[in-house]
Amino acid sequence: MEKATRNRLPLLALLVVLLTGLGCNAYQLDVLMRIGGPAGEVDYLAGLSGTHCDIDGDLDCDWHDYEGRDW
What is the pLDDT of residues 34-43, one digit of tens each? Predict the structure, then answer.
């Protein structure tokens, strides 16, 4: 693998995480609004960045993040 490609992989991984999270959030927000969800929940969901699953801050959402949850 070329060095330039390797250097872009972490950025690509971050982009995938963000777009996946934001896509899920957008769908959930749409459903919540359609069913007349509480304003507080709509506001909370609308304010998420899509990175809420990255508990350990390593720019991916994986088993380590799942195990790191305290809830």
Answer: 999 999 999 9
